Amino acid sequence: MTTPVITLGTRLTLARETAGISVAQMASRLGVTRHTVTRYEHDTTAVPNPVIYAYAGICDVPIEWLEGRTELAQVVHAIRCMTQLPRGEPYALPVVA
Fold it and tell me: Domain range holding 39?
């Protein structure tokens, strides 16, 4: 079984949406256009490192997860998305019986 590849653009979108931030709000916070944010999130333009760091700070996600450098952060973030844990809550893995 192959593990699906999650692109940087997909991670940026997941981070933004999980944080409850619209494309327009993210564009405003980054000082770019909505079109630029969409291009970042659709992987149609290179994302500068300062933008990746800004996304991490704005969305409260680890830079390592955005850059795909850590599997644990990917798992924790996926669980957070699936369970809709509020931001700032401690991470808790579901108990499997």
Answer: 8-83
